[in-house]
Amino acid sequence: MKVAVVGAGSIGQRHQRLLQELGHEVVVISKSSKSAKYKSLSDALTQENFEYVVLASQTSQHFADLSVLIEKNFVGSVLVEKPIFDRSEKLKPNRFKLLAVGYNLRFHPAIIWLQETLPQLGAISSANLYVGQYLPTWRPDSDYRNSSSAKTDSGGGVLRDLSHELDLVQYIFGDWNKLAAIGGKFSDLEIETDDTFSILMQTDQCSAVSVQMNYSDRLRQRMITVNGNNGTIQIDLVSNSATFNNSQMSFDVQPDSTYVSQHNAVIHNQDLSICSLADALKVVATIEAVEKSAKKSKWITK
């Protein structure tokens, strides 16, 4: 398959490498990379026919890139890195075979196990999702102060960078009904974006869901804890382990496993774990509701 990867940052390079390892012909499109074959998506679509396009450009560029694909009548599959947009947008009708968004944690074996095991908990009373990673060590080969994470106009900030948790809340526990949040730039990191958020939600399936995310955690943690009438489940997405009451288990997960599973699912259009456009737009709406709640110090209801 001939694949276009738009963007040559760390995530774009990862997609390029993985798709090449899967045996696909990859064409890189980037304004800034010297190794890119094309500087613009429009030029690439004029010159070549692609079956699959991966948009790994800055979040703030996603809407424009998708609009180019629509204008050029692209009919293949599209994977957009998360979050799909930096703010709510409405796409024009398109002819895409499939439009997916890169919430690859849905393909993590521990998340799949959690969904299969959750009914054994009975009625769920509470859930907590925590993610923290120290931004300066996130991309060791570059200065964090110049990254898209640090810049508002690039669509950065912890709410958008770590929005996997916001997707997982709705994927696992259903749509939220009301939420409240506290957040902003609370650390001494040299960035202009938010670095910390604490969110409390009520969802269709859980009356108390808390989500905590930050750029400050030197320990690098990503965990989900769920309490129900029949016990407690905790999964650790860094150590790839899980605990259900007194039972423990581990999962064999390589750093690229979830990305490879996601690509194969999109290419073959065969996995219900794929994040759809509708689901991804819910995440964007959630981000905006969280920001509104934090700014106004009030509960937000749907």
Brief rundown of the structure:
By secondary structure, the chain is α/β, with parallel strands linked by helices. It has two domains: 100 residues, NAD(P)-binding Rossmann-like Domain (Rossmann fold), CATH 3.40.50; 172 residues, Dihydrodipicolinate Reductase, domain 2 (2-Layer Sandwich), CATH 3.30.360.10.
Structural write-up:
There is one protein chain. The protein is an alpha/beta fold and 302 residues long. The chain folds into two domains: 2-101, NAD(P)-binding Rossmann-like Domain (Rossmann fold, 3-Layer(aba) Sandwich); 105-251 and 277-301, Dihydrodipicolinate Reductase, domain 2, CATH 3.30.360.10. It contains eight helices and 15 strands. The chain has helices at residues 10-21, 41-47, 62-71, 109-117, 158-161, 164-173, 257-268, 277-296; strands spanning 2-6, 25-29, 52-55, 77-80, 98-101, 124-132, 176-184, 196-203, 209-214, 221-228, 231-236, 241-244, 247-250, 275-276, 300-301. A nine-stranded mixed beta sheet has the order 13-12-11-10-6-9-8-7-15. A six-stranded mixed beta sheet has the order 2-1-3-4-5-14, with helices on both faces. Helix 6 (164-173) crosses helix 8. The longest helix is centred in the C-terminal third of the chain and has 20 residues, at 277-296. The chain is globular. The model has no long low-confidence stretch (mean pLDDT 96).
Write the layout of secondary structure elements.
Elements: E1 2-6, H1 10-21, E2 25-29, H2 41-47, E3 52-55, H3 62-71, E4 77-80, E5 98-101, H4 109-117, E6 124-132, H5 158-161, H6 164-173, E7 176-184, E8 196-203, E9 209-214, E10 221-228, E11 231-236, E12 241-244, E13 247-250, H7 257-268, E14 275-276, H8 277-296, E15 300-301
Parallel strand pairs: 1-2, 1-3, 3-4, 4-5, 6-9
Antiparallel strand pairs: 5-14, 6-10, 7-8, 7-15, 8-9, 10-11, 11-12, 12-13
